[in-house]
Design brief:
Length: 334
């Protein structure tokens, strides 16, 4: 069958063309992975299968998820066996709850459910409803047992790991990229960005940070890095609803039970761990620059203030710049 034989000559390349970047709806958002020259259908199949697996474990809107099983057993004394992914992420979430003094709390589920932000049930609850939900929030009443067993001690408690699970998912994809010896890649999980490896031409990766007042427009800032790193942003523009001229966003304050009202509009964290960056972006938003920078072991952060000015960690000087080269407000490094 000579017609089926392809001879490799200088004029006929036998190199396999890279598969195009892939985008799928998973984890409640659009997720895109681009492995450039190392991209294959098999690689993308494996990466997105891992994302689907993580979604099955963490999705509170799925009755069969591990997190939903934990929530359903709240207060009945049952230790619920879960996947190791859930145990690992929850343990880290509790670490961040302690570090932040409870500002970040994985048991915030009753408040998330009450407000219904990013669902068809979004509404402003009554003060009595908020007070009742707040009484059910308390990471101290989460018990981590042996063999990946977890228990919520009080009836009505409810886990919600939406503030950390996407970061964990990005880290999980990075493990696959490392195992498959992928040379460079970009993972974008609905704004959780992970740049992997080094660019082929030796230039820096450039990750845009949105303008919170015009999130669909050009980036406000550019972050540049030569190496593997994750950048995660939390902001008032991500998930919200309007009522009587007031925007109610999804970053809930565990002190008040309502969307946090602050003098900054977004916070971005740079870290080698996307899971840490995910949680810390929320913590930074809730605490603000002074309290966040005082935290032990904090990662570099960027605060975009409501007047358009920017406060950023001193470690980012030289890698953070205005998009287009110039800005119309101060760029301060601390």
């Amino acid at each position: 069958m000579l017609g089926s034989l392809l001879l490799c000559t200088p004029l006929v390349s036998c190199a396999r063309a890279a598969a195009p970047a892939r985008t799928e709806q998973v984890l409640g958002t659009l997720c895109t992975v681009n492995a450039y020259a190392d991209g294959t259908d098999e690689l993308y199949d494996e990466l997105f299968a891992r994302l689907q697996e993580i979604d099955r474990h963490f999705n509170v809107n799925r009755e069969d998820s591990d997190v939903s099983h934990i929530n359903a057993a709240a207060g009945d004394g049952t230790m619920v066996r879960v996947h190791a992914d859930v145990r690992k992420v929850l343990a880290r979430a509790i670490d961040f709850a302690r570090i932040s003094g409870g500002a970040f709390d994985p048991s915030i589920g009753p408040l998330v459910q009450l407000w219904g932000i990013n669902t068809d049930m979004a509404r402003v609850p009554s003060a009595e409803e908020i007070s009742g939900a707040l009484r059910l929030v308390g990471y101290e009443d989460i018990e981590l047992g042996g063999e990946n067993a977890i228990r919520l001690k009080r009836p009505g408690m409810r886990l919600d790991l939406g503030g950390i699970a996407k970061g964990y998912a990005a880290d999980a994809l990075a493990e696959i990229l490392a195992a498959r010896r992928v040379r460079q890649a970009v993972v974008n999980l609905g704004g959780n960005v992970y740049v992997w490896g080094k660019k082929k031409d030796g230039s820096s990766w450039k990750v845009g940070i949105k303008n919170p007042l015009e999130p669909e427009g050009s980036p406000y800032l550019l972050f540049a890095s030569q190496d593997t790193v994750s950048l995660v942003t939390s902001g008032v523009y991500e998930r919200f609803f309007w009522q009587e001229g007031v925007r109610y966003h999804h970053i809930l304050d565990t002190a008040t039970g309502s969307p946090a009202r602050r003098s900054w509009l977004s916070t971005s964290i740079v870290s080698a761990s996307s899971m840490d960056a995910d949680a810390l972006s929320t913590i930074a938003f809730l605490l603000g620059p002074e309290r966040y920078f005082a935290l032990q072991g904090h990662e570099p952060a960027v605060f975009i203030m409501d007047d358009g000015s920017v406060i950023a960690s001193a470690e980012l000087e030289g890698s953070l710049s205005w998009y287009g080269g110039t800005g119309n407000a101060p760029l301060q490094f601390r």
